[in-house]
Design a protein that fits this description.
472 residues, mainly beta, Porin, 20-stranded mixed beta sheet, three-stranded mixed beta sheet, 52% strand, globular
Amino acid sequence: MSLRLRTRSGRAGLSCALGTTTLLVCLSSAGALAAPVDRAAASAARDESETDSETEADDELPALSPAVEVDRTVSRPFTQLRLVGLERTRRRTIERLLPRPMPTALTAIEIEEFERRVRNLAVFDKVTVQADDPELVVTVREKFTLIPSLEFSTGATAVDTYALVGATESNLLGTASTLAAFLSWEERGLNGTVQFYQHPYARGRWSVDLSAYLTTADFRFADGQTDPEAADTAWLRRQAGMDLLVNGPFSYEGPVRVTFGAFGVREWVSSAEVSRVPSTGFWIGAAVVVEVDKFTFHDLVPSGWRSTLELYPGVLLPSLEARPELAWTTTFAAPVWRQAVLMGRLKAAGVGGGNANHSVLLGSLEGVRGLPDAFFRNRTQAFFNLEFRQSVNVARRWALQGVVLLDTALHEPMDATGRSQPWRQAAAAGIGLRVVPLALAGFVLRLDLARPWSSPEPSQGWFGQLAFNQYF
């Protein structure tokens, strides 16, 4: 029941929509005073990528005088906020990202955090925040945000393909809120989701996330977990429900967010081909999530890091079966040189065991490119994804990315009875190409070619994956 964004191409930031079907009520207190790991390098890389895609039309924007930094903790007075380039986004949406209403005095640290929050709305492909005394000037270029949702990622076999169709408005009524509806094929089953969520970066505002969804997952097992192609369907797990989250105001006092919640899941099994199926019923419990957020969104050269610890104590009724889960995820982005970034993701997760319906999943869609999908239902797993991305602007608001990639994983599979099997290893290395339309929110054309390896099997052939999103 890993806490994650419901859409694979979703914006940066915490969303408590759940990978399983849940009823979740969360209260979150948060803070985000975030300086990138290498602030100068990250800023330079972002500026270059945004400048390279400029045209003469962009030169009409007024030239601004940058702030002179003597002491980053000393406040400078500003009388008003001047916004350049807003089209559909409301002025109030940007104003509420400031630590205090104008007129006010701001430190260089607060201005940097304000710019990070504007970027993390993910509805602009260009953002600059500069001082033009006595004004603070924000210059943006908006993306198209009402677009058909089309996601696709090939799996190890045709039936393991991930596909999603729907529609997404990621700047609803100019508030940077998202309204979306999807139908998807994932884990060899049909899924449906309707979502509404507000961004969590506004000063002094409680944000709300709402989701309603239906999920289907195909469970397959083979002796020794070594022959995915020979594995037949054991049963279909179905879950249905909704989420309700309330996230507390995101203050400027620190980078830590703490979320508390409760969840409930209606779970049942159908199309069983085995004599004994796992217990099902109502799954209820609590959620505690702690996140440290120092990540700055950018289409080509993001920077910083984000780390999340998730704890879910729970119980399945009426069998009183314990269902605990613990997960830790860290994502980082380190700009290297001109429009180049090193991206990494480390994720470890585990469950109590004893019921294969309560497990963590590893495959090509999330984990190691080339592994069989909807097959490795694990009690414990850890995987690491590393990508070196070099971007080149090829036209106004269009870029290409060349990628070198490496995936590694260690996992402890379950059998159909929920018993742990011997630990396994997996890895993949390869290259990739991305086509990035900077004017579209949440869309990337991705082609990856990797050679996977999994123990105890021998090395496999090359694996190709076509998708409409970044891998992470």
